[in-house]
Amino acid sequence: MDIEYQFPFGFKEVEGIHSRTDFDLKAHQEFSKKKQQYFDPEINQNYIPYVVETSIGADRLFLMTLCNALKTEEVGEKSRSYLALHPALAPVKAAILPLTKKDGLPDKAKTIFDELKYDFNIVYDEAGSIGKRYTRQDLIGTPFCIAVDHQTLEDDTVTIRHRDTTEQERVPIADLQGRLAAACSFRNVFEKI
Questions:
Q1: What ranges make up the beta strands (E) of 57-188?
Q2: Pick from 97, 100, 80: nearest CA to 166
Q3: pLDDT classification of 39: cutoffs 50, 70, 90
Q4: Where is the Anticodon-binding domain (predicted)?
Q5: Which of 22, 57, 71, 112 has the most other CB atoms within 10 Å of its CB?
Q6: Greatest pairwise CA separation for the chain in angstroms
Q7: Comparing 73-77, 109-113, 153-157, 172-176, which segment has the lowest mean pLDDT?
Q8: For the chain, first and last CA: distance in Å?
Q9: Rounded Cα–Cα distance for residues 151 and 78 (Å)
Q10: What pLDDT sits at residue 188?
Q11: How many Å is the Cα radius of gyration of the chain?
């Protein structure tokens, strides 16, 4: 049996599952001169077990995951593309983005970056407009962009932009660690299965 996936370029095999019967172990027994038999005490008999072989390629799984995650949608007259990887799978979990390169915003953003960088693979980016930085992060699948603005300096809150919906929410800096940990946790993924 083959398991296939509808790639953009057509159905292609992702995994093959084959019943090899006792062919492989019989051949191994013949050429190695070592018994490959199993004694089953319930039926009081020796036999060579059947083998079910499955093969799945990491490269095919990776390509399937990327193809499944690539999204393109129309927003007004423009097209928006992003890589909708689950936060647990996304290589970069968050981007720290100061709104401007002045007024102390980079310093505050770097402090936040330093607090989170040991627990999560995150990036710091201050190059270009905030919209272009959002687009860059969307294209590589970063699920959360954390914007540091002038209000951050007043009340220690930041804006989290969610990649898939582009919705934004204001949260305290103190909550970032817990929110990222919960969103990026494989435990939460497995509990939902």
A1: 70-75, 78-83, 94-98, 122-124, 144-148, 157-162, 168-172
A2: 80
A3: very high
A4: 93-179
A5: 112
A6: 83
A7: 73-77
A8: 25
A9: 30
A10: 84
A11: 26
Shared-domain flag, residues 138 and 91? yes
Amino acid residing at 131: G
Nearest CA to 152 among 127, 176, 120?
Answer: 176
**DSSP secondary structure of 44-75:** TEEEPPP-EEEEE-HHHHHHHHHHHHEEEEEE
Give the domain-ending residue among 56, 71, 94. 56
Q: Answer yes or no: do 169 and 105 share one domain.
A: yes
Distance CA 17, CA 1 (A): 5
Q: Are residues 36 and 27 in contact, defined by beta-carbon separation less than 8 angstroms?
A: no
